[in-house]
Each structure stands twice: as structure tokens, then as C-alpha cells.
Amino acid sequence: MKYVITENQSSELFSNLLKKLDIKFHISYMSDNGRDSITAMVFLYKNGKPLGYRNGYDFYFKYDSLFNRLIPDGRWPHIEQKDEFGFMPPEMVLGFFTDKVETYLKNYIDKGYTNLKRK
Does residue 39 form part of some domain? Predict the structure, then answer.
């Protein structure tokens, strides 16, 4: 049997999974080059204790200042390979965290907390 779910349903499903597993996440700005790239980290916690890679999961983006757009440009280490997410499609895990980080970084840029500026 095959099920089809939308992106919005996917995000909601993954959020509910995190709540059920008592996994929380925190996003933190890491760095930018002042021109066209920016990086943030995702930290995972289960029952209040660090989960997975203690130094966070890096998400790299290219910044298109003309259109105020962030374009995913890689990640490390692979958050989608965590045992807790093993039964979820990797695209769902990556899509969820990439969207959350992108929203966080856009707000960070728009508030002027970084050297990146809109043209």
C-alpha cells in the first residue's frame, strides 16, 4: 500500500513524532562570510540531554541578497541518519530541519544580526 502526503502534512507529522519521542531542537547561528553564505547549527535534546552529535548539525546556505533567498548548500553530519529517525524517509527529516533553519536564518538576516545585507 502506498500513501501520499503533502509537504505541510509531512512537517506536522514530523513535529508530532518529535513531541512523542520527547526530542527538542535548538537552532543557533554559526557564521557567515559577509557576502553570500551563512551557516547555522541544529542541536537535538532528548529528555533534556544532548542527543546525537554534541557539536550540532551544520546547515550551510548560499545567500541571494537580490531576492533575499537562501539556497541549501549542504549539511554535516547527516542528521537524517540518526537512529531515532531511521524509519522516516530521509527527505522528510531533511526537509523539516532545512525549513526550520532557513526560517531562522531569514529572520536573523532581516533583523540585521549578520554582515549579510539585502541589496
Answer: yes
* Structural domain of 76: 24-110
Q: Residues 97, 88: contact at Cβ < 8 Å?
A: no
- Report if residue 93 sits inside a domain: yes
Residue 100: CA atoms inside 13 Å, Cβ hemisphere, count? 20
Q: What is the spatial distance between Cα 72 and Cα 61, in angstroms, rounded to a whole number?
A: 4
pLDDT digits (tens, 9 = 90+) for 87-119: 889 999 999 999 999 999 999 998 999 888 766
On whether residue 34 sits in a domain, the answer given is yes
Give the span between the Cα atoms of 88 and 23, in whole angstroms.
15
pTM over 0.85: yes
Q: Quick check: is 79 in a domain?
A: yes
